[in-house]
Structure formats: C-alpha cells, structure tokens
Specification:
alpha/beta, two-stranded antiparallel ribbon, eight-stranded parallel β-barrel, 621 residues, TIM Barrel, 8% strand, 2 domains
Length: 621
C-alpha cells in the first residue's frame, strides 16, 4: 500500500440520491466522494434540507427562474463547500479526546499513512511532545474532495413554458456542467458513459478547467472508462482542446452498481494490466498533445508536469483485494461503492430499503433491462419500485407518469422525445406490437421487454427525500436501488468507521457466504451474462450476433490465461479465496472449451445455437 497522508479509496457516485450529500457526512474525515448533479429538483430540495439543518437562510431558486438548473447546482455545491469548511475548522479546534471527530479523522486513516503514524506516536508521547505533535497533526487535516458526476448520455434538449426549444447550452448535461463550473469548488468532475462531443467542447468555455498562472487546475476532469482504448481516445480528444484528464477511473464492466457498460468479455485484470504497461506512454502522449494545444491557444501552460491518476472500482470486497489492486497495478486509489449503502452515516437509504438489503439473498441482485437508456442495469428485486411496477401492470396500466423526463430520448411515436419507461410510450408500443406480431409466444416476450423498463428519475431519488422526511415529488415514494452484485456478501448496518476499518483490513464485516476473489466473481458474472444472451437469441439469430458470441468467448479465454499467469502473485496473499482460484479457473476453462460457435456459421444456425446453449447451460460453477 502507498504511503499517503490521506485515504486510498473514494466513494463513487451512487444513483441520483444515495450520495447526494455524502461529502457533508464524510469529507470532514478526509474521504472523497462523488455527487450526481443531474437531478436539479432533488438538489434544490436537499439544499433546503441542509440549510435547515445548518440554521442557514434558504431562498428558493424556482423552476421559473432563468437558467434555474445551473443556478440550483451552483448554489448547492457552494453550500456543501461552506458546510465542509466549517466542519474542518471545528475539528481543528477540538481537543484530542476519545470519540472526538479529530481522533476519528486519524484513526480511520490507513495504518501506513504518514499522519496515522504521527498520530500513534502522539498517543504515547510525553505531555510536551504530545502538544507539539498535536499541532503538527492539525496541519495534516484536509477535507475529502467534493467531486461531481455527469452521466454524459443524460443530455436531453429542453423547452420553455410555451414549448419553444431552448438553446443548446440549456441541455441537461451542459447546464449541469455550467452549474459546477460556476461553483466555488476546487475538485473534480467525473464524466461517465462515454464521449459527449458538445459537452467536452463546452468545457473549453470555463477557465477553471485550464491551468492558472501557477499551473494549477482548479476544476479537474476525471473520465470513467472501461478500457485503455477508450481512455486514449477520450483523453486525446480533450487534450487537443488543452484540457487535461487528471484521472482515469476504470470500472468493471459488469461487477459494478447502476448501469453496466459491459465489455465484450474482457475482464478487469487484463484491462488493468494494459494501463499498468502503457501508463507512461499514455501520460507522454496526452501531455504532449495538451501542452501543444495550450501553447496554440495562448493559454497558461503547466509549470510542472501534472498528475495523472489511475484508479479502479467494481466488486472489491476485502482488504487483500484492495491492496493487491493498488500494489500490483500501481493504482493511486480504489472505489468502494455499494457496501456504503449499508452505512447510514455516509449515504441516503430509507429504512425499508435498508432492511431489505440487510436481509437480501444473493439471488436478489440481478442484471436487468429496467433502464430506459437501453443499457443493462444492476438491480435489486425487493424494492418498492419493483412492487409498484408490477402493480401497474396488474391494473393494465404499465409504465410511469413521466414528470422529470431526464431519460427521454425515444422518437418512435412522437415529435418530441419521450421516455421508454413512460406510460405514454409503453401504451403506444404495446399497441404496435399487437398489430404486427401474430405469434403469441413472441408477442408476450416482446411486451415483457417493453414493460420491464422502469422510472429511474423518481426511483433513484426518492430515498433521500424519505430519509430526510421531505416532501416527495408528485407523491411518488417508490424507491429504486441499484447495487452491484458484490453487496450480497455484506449483511448488516455498519458505522462509517467499521466500513473503513474493513477496507483497510483492521476488521472483517463480510457475511458467512462463501466468496471468491473479485476476478473470479467477475468471470462468473460474464459467463452468466453470455448464457443469458444466448438464451435470448434462440428465436432470432444473426451472423453479427454469432461473431459477438465467439469474440466474447475468446476474450474470456484470454482472461483466464491471464489470471493463470498472475495466480502465484494472488496466492502469495495466503487467502482461502485465492487458494481456490486454480480450481475455479480450470472449471471456467473446461466449460468454455466444451462448446464451439463454429457450427453456427453453417447450416441451420438456430439448431447450432440450441446445441451450444444446451452444453453451456447445463454447467453451473
């Protein structure tokens, strides 16, 4: 583990609401976290809550105000900065007493950090030295970063009250970016879900994304990426505008929470190896492009070489895994998301949902097609949102009333985009299917695909309002929660200190379920995904899909061979989970070896697929 003065993990964005005020809860302990800034109505409601809690004046920014979306975001982020600054000053004035926040700050740090070692030395020093060390320690107290996230796909066009289309800068993502850029924060913005050219171009209009006269970037850019190629393409795109990417945040394509941007079967390990081997090459290429662009633009260039962090997240469950990722792949930090849903001190989860998560079974976590974006979505069965969706179907009124429209993108039946989870769309689509499909079996399956879509705008925001006893939007109280499958191994409500101690290996809070290491778990998830995809294609199979299946299998096989090559490094940790790795890899390899897609390229491809699927579906690991 690297010798830092602060933490070696961060809390990623979770949903719209689960981490919306997390910085106020954890930044004072030096923990960085990420806030979604897409849902401005929820943000405004939470600003009122925080102002009330902090005894501050609150003046509403109405939806009738010009540029209200950006103004709400700016006001909220400035408020959080104000509260966190106040908290840090209060901590620095505290005495070092048992249970005090200042003690908690240092006790939660990794054991090999510089400031933690000084803290431990202070505890056993004489009175004179203790006072000297305490003053030095207070200089080490820095808040965690208040970072923000924009999912780049959420960038719909907006309209005024009479239906006129607003200029492009009022689109969702651009307005959110403007709200962040105009704030007082000195932090990072995380762009996820791929390249959005007009959003990235809009960054050029704000000076805080460029080096100042001292070569310092006030607002840094983080890209969440799935592989090295994506990092290089997006990094160069921004560098040619003089915009530096300060961090590439690599997320498992499938072993994560929320939307799953699934790779073509390439596991996390080989992707991290690629970054490890090409990190210097990536830095040099981006630095050259960015420096040249800054010179051409006549902007202040870097005085010294900027930092380029590489981090990873998705499915990490133990301190051994955390340390291995940091040490072996030379990562700067890791992301721990879903487990923090079980930490009320850190996140917003309503009591009913929290209880359901505590009592959940492994099979309650599943990969769904609930998202209107058309991207696989990690879901949880026992939610009030799922119960509401089924109730609406039983009443023959599938779909949701669509008030917020953040995911409106479908133009199949209307001139203005509508959401595929909306009642309007589902009614029109079902009518179309009934008119065009005569086969009852196929019709039933196609209708099921339509009504599986659920409202995320309301569902992913409701928990924060329920927990804070705040008025619900349109009285919609159903909660959607989207944890990664790794949460199956955490059962209980934990304190912030317990979760942090687990991350650093000081305690173990995993439940009694047998848990393989994160690489094995991810392979299993990919294989399960492949099996399901094959089953879904039994009635409609194309040559393109056959090629996809073959490439997916080949990438999994390459991943298995890679894990064989580093297995001894994993096993050196001495964990029981790692000792089982050879056996599990052998099972995966034998299973994938047992079938071929070649027969699907000739003759009756559907029969070939059925034979292939029969072979793979009978093997469970």
């Amino acid at each position: 583990m690297k010798n830092n003065i602060s933490h070696t993990f961060h809390i990623p964005v979770m949903g719209l609401a689960f981490t919306i005020d997390t910085p106020i809860k954890v930044a004072k302990f030096g923990i960085s976290s990420v806030v979604s800034i897409i849902e401005d109505q929820l943000i405004e409601q939470m600003r009122e809550v925080i102002c009330k809690n902090e005894n501050l004046d609150y003046k509403e920014i109405s939806s009738d105000d010009d540029d209200h979306r950006a103004k709400r975001i700016t006001a909220y982020l400035d408020l959080m900065q104000l509260v966190v600054n106040k908290q840090i000053e209060e901590i620095k004035r505290e005495n070092f007493d048992t249970g005090a926040d200042i003690n908690q700050y240092f006790e939660m740090l990794p054991d090999d950090s510089i400031s933690k070692k000084m803290y431990q030395k202070m505890l056993f020093s004489d009175v004179k030295e203790r006072l000297i060390l305490q003053e030095k320690l207070k200089q080490f107290i820095i808040p965690g970063s208040i970072d923000v996230n924009i999912m780049t796909k959420l960038d719909k066009t907006n309209y005024d009250k009479v239906g006129n289309q607003l200029p492009v800068e009022y689109c969702d993502a651009l307005a959110a970016l403007r709200g962040y850029a105009n704030s007082s924060l000195k932090s990072s913005i995380v762009f996820s879900a791929g390249l959005n050219p007009r959003l990235y171009a809009y960054c050029e209009t704000f000076k805080d994304f460029y080096p100042d006269t001292e070569g310092i970037i006030k607002k840094k850019i983080i890209l969440k990426v799935s592989d090295y190629r994506s990092a290089l393409i997006q990094g160069k795109y921004l560098a040619k505008k003089g915009l530096w990417v300060s961090e590439f945040r690599i997320e498992s394509g499938i072993n994560c929470g929320g939307h799953a941007f699934i790779s073509s079967g390439i596991p996390l390990g080989p992707i991290l190896e690629d970054f490890k081997n090409k990190r210097s090459e990536l830095f040099d290429e981006l630095y050259t492009d960015c420096s040249n662009s800054l010179n051409v633009l006549g902007r202040q260039s870097f005085i010294s070489k900027p930092e380029l962090k590489i981090t990873a997240q998705g499915g990490i469950g133990t301190a051994d895994e955390n340390n291995f990722l940091i040490d072996y792949y030379d990562l700067d930090s890791t992301g721990w998301g879903s487990p923090f849903l079980m930490v009320p001190e850190a996140t917003n989860v309503d009591n009913d949902t929290l209880e359901n998560l505590v009592n959940a079974k492994k099979e309650d976590y599943y990969l769904s097609h609930a998202s209107p974006l058309g991207v696989p979505f990690n879901n949880f069965k026992n939610t009030t949102s799922e119960a509401q969706r089924l109730k609406r179907i039983m009443k023959d009124r599938p779909g949701s009333p669509c008030y917020k429209k953040f995911l409106s993108s479908n133009l199949e039946f209307t001139d203005k985009p509508i959401c595929t989870a909306s009642r309007e769309y589902q009614k029109l689509k079902i009518l179309q299917l009934k008119e065009t499909i005569s086969d009852e079996t196929i019709l039933e399956k196609e209708i099921e695909k339509v009504i599986e879509k659920d409202c995320l705008c309301e569902g992913l925001g409701a928990a924060a309002l329920l927990k804070n006893h705040t008025k619900l939007s349109h009285k919609l109280s159903a909660v959607t929660v989207c944890p990664g499958p790794n949460l199956a191994y955490f059962s209980g409500v934990f304190s912030l200190k317990q979760m942090v101690d687990h991350i650093y290996g000081r305690i173990n809070i995993l439940n009694s379920l047998t848990r393989s290491n994160l690489f094995i778990n991810e392979l299993q998830l990919y294989i399960d995904y492949l099996k399901k995809e094959m089953a879904d294609q039994l009635t409609i199979l194309t040559d393109k899909k056959v090629t996809y299946f073959q490439n997916f299998k080949n990438n999994l096989m390459k991943g298995i061979e890679y894990y064989y090559s580093i297995e001894h490094k994993l096993n050196s940790k001495g964990s029981d989970a790692y000792e089982q790795m050879t056996h599990q890899l052998n099972e995966f390899k034998n299973m994938l070896d047992s079938f071929s897609f070649d027969d699907m390229l000739f003759g009756d491809s559907r029969d070939g697929l059925k034979n292939t699927f029969t072979k793979i579906s009978t093997i469970n690991i």
